[in-house]
Amino acid sequence: MSTWESGNTGYPENYDSGVEDIGTAAKRIVAQADTQFVPRSPLAETPKAADSDSTRPLDGARAFDVATLPETEEMEIPCQSTLRDLSSRKLDDFELIRRLGSGGMADVYLADQTPLQRNIALKVMRSDRIADPVIIQRFKHEATSAAALNHNNVVQIYQVGECNGIHYIAQEYVDGSNLRQYLNREGTPNTFDALRILRQIASALKAASDAGIIHRDIKPENIMVTRKGVVKVADFGLARAAENDDVQLTQDGFTMGTPLYMSPEQINGQKLDKRADIYSFGITAYQLLAGQPPFHGRTGRILASQHLNDEPEPLSNRRQDLPIELCNIIHRMIEKQPEDRYQSAAEILAELRHLEHLASQSETQYRASTNQVEPFQLARFIMVCLLMVVLGGIFGALCRQETNVAPDSSVDSEVPHFNNIEVE
To answer: Do residue 301 and residue 316 come from a single domain?
Structure first.
């Protein structure tokens, strides 16, 4: 049975396409959660939450008003597609096999790229968004930004197109699961496996940073792990070319991203740089190692307040088996102030590689010492056994010899007589 027939596509049925985050995530939340994003004064008081003692204001000129978001851990609202099912249809070179999931702006299909005979994931813009030229611009901008990244740890964009009024993005299909699914299935990884995963994420963020791209929505759902253990960062749906200040795709006062992993400056509506991705990466890494994120809140307001004001529980308290150096890396990544964090993914990558090298050496030394001790013990046991056999043989031989040479009491031992000898 193929991967597709088995239903294990690497994209769950409620897969968020990622494209919807470009300019519509906040609108979707506003429409479905009956709330709004409003400007706030730095001195604006935050209403008390029923299950929190925190009454501190959310600092910043543009605070993220999420007081009425659903009381769920992910703080996301599922969005059902209004686009008709295009399964079995063909868009340019792509034969659509079946729909994998839906997001706020696009549906995702498993498709076969006929000329190249390969499976791809095809993002098809939803029909209820197609009339808005600004949304189409955002859709194309996402693809252009992500297509600039050609890296083994980034989900590759193959093609951007339009067929009979349907806009789409063809991208790499990942045969595996996202990091949240991996964590639910495998549990928290050991130090060596965790370093391998985190190193690959850092490598992807370094490639994005080198290309001037900010992801803006790093979270476990946007990190894929293939069956062979390759980690790929997906859905640069909020990506914006950092150097191109002329492209204003985000409406003023709207905050993008997922509240559970959102940096303080992103909550405050401030201008973002690569250090915002480092913060979200740190929260994701904390969850990978501890099994749950450092901050929890039944409402978005409580969660946002925790990101702004609360200190996370030391990771070493939750995982005493982890090297303290790794815990320190994670905590530095989630510092409140951007200037207190690592200033680039390259710095994180260098430290993770160093720790991975040390962990690999320790593992090698341990195996070598184990391999030396066990043969020595076996040889000693064999030598003792052989010695016992030899000693037993000698003792047995001595006993038999003593039995064979024992004197006979019936033998005449008198001196012979010489009576018949004549003397001349």
So the answer is: yes
**Which residues, including other chains, have CB under 8 Å from residue 133's CB and lie 6 or more apart?**
none
Q: Is there a domain that residue 367 lies in?
A: no
Diameter over CA atoms, the chain: 157
Interatomic CA distance for residues 14 and 10, integer angstroms: 11
Q: What are phi and psi of 129, to 5 degrees?
A: -110, -10
Q: Are 207 and 228 in contact (CB under 8 A)?
A: no
CB 194 within 8 A of CB 152: no
Parent domain of 325: 177-361
pLDDT at 169 over 60: yes
- Tens digit of pLDDT for each residue in 342-379? 999 999 999 999 999 988 887 665 555 545 545 666 67
Do 202 and 135 sit in the same domain of this protein? no
Q: How many domains does the chain have?
A: 2
Q: Tell me, what amino acid is at 145?
A: S
217 is catalytic: yes
- Tell me the per-residue pLDDT of 61-117, one tens digit each, with 9 for 90 and over: 334 444 444 443 433 333 344 457 888 889 999 999 999 887 666 788 999 998 898
| Contact criterion met (CB below 8 Å) for 205 and 233 | yes
Residues 110 and 205 in one domain: no
Catalytic, out of 16, 217, 235, 277:
217
Mean pLDDT of 403-418: 52
